[in-house]
Amino acid sequence: MSEKTDNTITKLLSLGLTEEEGRVYLAILQGRGDTALTISRHLRLARTKVYRLLDSLIAKKMVITKLGDRGSRFLATPPDDLSIILDDRQHQLDQLKQSLPSLQDTLASLASSTKDSSQVLYYHNLDGIKQITYNSLRAKGELLTYELGLMDSFMSHAEAEKLRDRFVDNKINIRTLTNLVKMDAWTDNAEMVSKYWEIRHLPPQGKPFQFEILIYNDVYCLYRYTEGVAFAVEIHSQELADMQRQLFEYLWSGAKPFQVIDNHGTAKLI
Q1: pLDDT for 201-213, tens place per residue?
Q2: Sign of CA dihedral 203, 201, 138, 95
Q3: Which of the listed CATH numbers 1.10.3110.10, 3.30.870.10, 3.40.50.300, 3.40.1260.10 matches domain 116-269?
Q4: CATH 1.10.10.10 residue window(s) in the chain
Q5: CA-CA distance, 57 to 59, in Å (whole number)?
Q6: In a 3-state reduction of DSSP, which class is residue 261?
Q7: Which of 73, 105, 166, 220 could cross-link 66 (Cys pair, CB 3.0–4.6 Å)?
C-alpha cells in the first residue's frame, strides 16, 4: 500500500473501522471492486472473509448494497455522508452516557454479592496509574488526596482536562494536602477550581510526601510515578479507608490554606 493509503486507513480507524475494513472500504470507493469476488481478488482476501467485512461495513453504514440484474453490488458511503455517521454515533454516545449511571448501579449491586469486601490490587505500569486515577471517578461526593504533582506528569494535558471535566460532571469535591508552597496554573476548567477543589499546605516532617494518595468510598490508594517507573496499590477496605479519612481530617485541620489566584488554579500560601 502507498503511504497515502496507509495514512487514510489510519484515519478510518478513528471511525471505528478495523484495518481490513478500511482496505475494503477504500477498494470500493476507488472503484477497484464492487462485488465480493472482485474485492477478494484485489485485496487477496478469502471471499468468505470479504463477506464478513462487508456485513460489518454495512452495519457501520460505511457501505450500502445495490441490487441489480447481475446480483448484489456494493457501494461506498460518499465521504460527504461521514458527518451524518458521526452525528449518529454522537447521539448513541449521548444515550449511553445517560444510561451509564443506571448500568453502573446495576453492575455494582451484582458485583457486591460475589466479591469479598476487602481486596488489594497492584499496578506496575503507566496504564495502571492512569486506571486508578480513572477509578477515582467512582468517588461519591468527595475525594481526598495527598499530592506530589499534577496528573499531567503521567498523562497528556488533554487527557487530564477530560478527567477534570468528568470530576465536575460527577460533582466530586476534591480536597488536597501537599508539601508544595505554590501552584502554577494547571487547568482551564474554571468550575472545578471555583467549586470543587480546595488545597492546603502540610509542612514536610523530615521527608516530603513519597507517594500520591487517594481516599474515597472504601478505597485507600497510593502510587508513585518517577523516572518512568510506576508503582501503585489500591486497597478496598472500608475500615482502612475510614481510618485514613480520620487521619486526613486531623492533618487537614492543622494545614495552612492556599489562596487561589485565578480560575486556572494558580495558588499560593496565605
Answers
A1: 988 876 667 889 9
A2: negative
A3: 3.30.870.10
A4: 3-82
A5: 5
A6: coil
A7: 73
Cell of 5: 493509503
* Residue among 71, 67, 69, 56 nearest 20 (CA): 56
Q: Over the stretch 233-256, which tens digit does the pLDDT of each residue have?
A: 999 999 999 999 999 999 999 999
The letter for the amino acid at 214 is L
78 secondary structure, DSSP code: P
Q: What letters, b where the CB count within 10 A reaches 16 and e where it falls short, cover 197-228?
A: bebbbbeeeeeebeebbbbbbebbbbbebeee
CA atoms within 13 A on the CB side of 171: 2
pTM: 0.60
What phi and psi, each to the nearest 5 degrees, are found at residue 73? -125, 150
- Give yes or no for a contact between 185 and 262, defined as CB atoms under 8 angstroms apart: yes
Distance (Å) of CA 157 to CA 29, 151, 198: 37, 8, 20
DSSP3 helix / strand / coil % (the chain, rounded to 5)? 50, 25, 25
Show the beta-strand stretches assigned E in the chain.
63-68, 71-76, 119-123, 142-147, 173-178, 182-183, 197-201, 212-216, 219-226, 229-236, 256-260, 267-269
